[in-house]
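User: Please fill in residues for this 151-position structure.
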């Protein structure tokens, strides 16, 4: 096990929490809720899921996920469909409209972040880009498909 006593884990945690809050604030009000967007993003990344599996991945109860999926379905962003391998199973799928909604949400955030990045020095921007592989590796340490992953 790595020695974390000399590593500034508290400072990294605090900085990542501030970064997370900042990114969340970049989304315009009235768009998809955070839970709706996270659920659609999970479906986009992972493909169709059983409702129970989706609830576990998102850390919500099955009744809450049932309500959310119903709202997403009414909005045309997700749909329920039978499993081709087991007719008794229903899987939730993201629709093309759901993908478009996620893309639009990401574009708003990307454009807002791009404006903020222009206020940093070139050296600061380069350091951020250099950190991206480590951030990606860190985010992969708890896979999306692990139901007990803490969020």
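Assistant: Residues filled in for all 151 positions:
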């Amino acid at each position: 096990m790595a020695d974390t006593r000399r590593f500034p884990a508290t400072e990294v945690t605090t900085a990542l929490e501030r970064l997370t809050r900042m990114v969340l604030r970049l989304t315009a009000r009235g768009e998809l809720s955070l839970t709706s967007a996270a659920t659609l993003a999970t479906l986009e990344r992972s493909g169709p899921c059983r409702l129970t599996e989706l609830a576990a991945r998102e850390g919500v109860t099955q009744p809450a996920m049932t309500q959310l999926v119903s709202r997403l379905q009414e909005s045309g962003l997700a749909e329920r469909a039978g499993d081709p391998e087991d007719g008794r199973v229903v899987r939730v799928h993201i629709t093309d409209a759901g993908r478009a909604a996620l893309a639009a949400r990401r574009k708003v955030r990307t454009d807002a972040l791009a404006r903020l990045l222009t206020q940093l020095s070139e050296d600061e921007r380069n350091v951020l880009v250099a950190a991206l592989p480590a951030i990606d590796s860190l985010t992969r340490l708890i896979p999306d498909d692990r139901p007990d992953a803490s969020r």
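For context: The helical segments are 9-25, 34-46, 51-58, 62-74, 96-117, 122-139.
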